Amino acid sequence: MARIIVLVGMMGSGKTTIGRLLADRLRCRFVDTDDLVVVYAGRSVRDIFATDGEAVFRSYEQRALSSALESTVDVVVAAAGGSVLSDVNRAALAQRADVVVWLDATVATLGERTGGGSHRPLLDDDPIAGLTKLDSQRRAVYEQVADVRIDTTGRSVTQVVEAVLAATVEEHAS
Fold this sequence. Notes:
Elements: E1 4-8, H1 15-26, E2 29-32, H2 33-41, H3 45-52, H4 54-69, E3 75-78, H5 87-96, E4 99-104, H6 107-114, H7 127-145, E5 148-151, H8 157-173
Parallel strand pairs: 1-3, 1-4, 2-3, 4-5
C-alpha cells in the first residue's frame, strides 16, 4: 500500500520547497495540488480567482487533493493552504493520509517569504493583514488535521526537511 505524506500550512510555510526535497530524500513522487489545479483548469490560480472566483478555485482544489490522495505509489503531497477549510478535504486527509505534517511559521516569516508572489491573489491588498486574517481563520484547522506540527520559523530548508523526516518516521512507527 502506498505511503502518503501530506504537508499542510499557510502560503509561504514551505510546503512546495520542503515537499520536493522530502520526496527526493524518500525517493518517492511529489505532488503540489496547486500545480494540479492549474492543469485541471488550464489557467493560473490568479486567473481562476479573477474570472470565476474563490468558490470555483476551491472546487478545483478539492479535485486536486482527492486525486493526490488516491496515489498508488508513495507520495509527498503539498496541499494548497486553504484545502483544510473543506469538510470533504479534512475527511479525505483523515482517511487517506498516513501522516499530515503542519508546516507552521509566524506571520512575519510568511510575509517575508511571500512578499513577491504575484500568484497569491488572497494577498493582493495588504499581504501582512491578509496573512494575519488567514492565519487566524486556519490555525485551529491545521492543528486539528495535523499529526505533527513543525515550526519553520528561523530554520533552514535542510533543518525543516530533517525535522519532517524525523517526525514522519516517528509518526509512522506509532
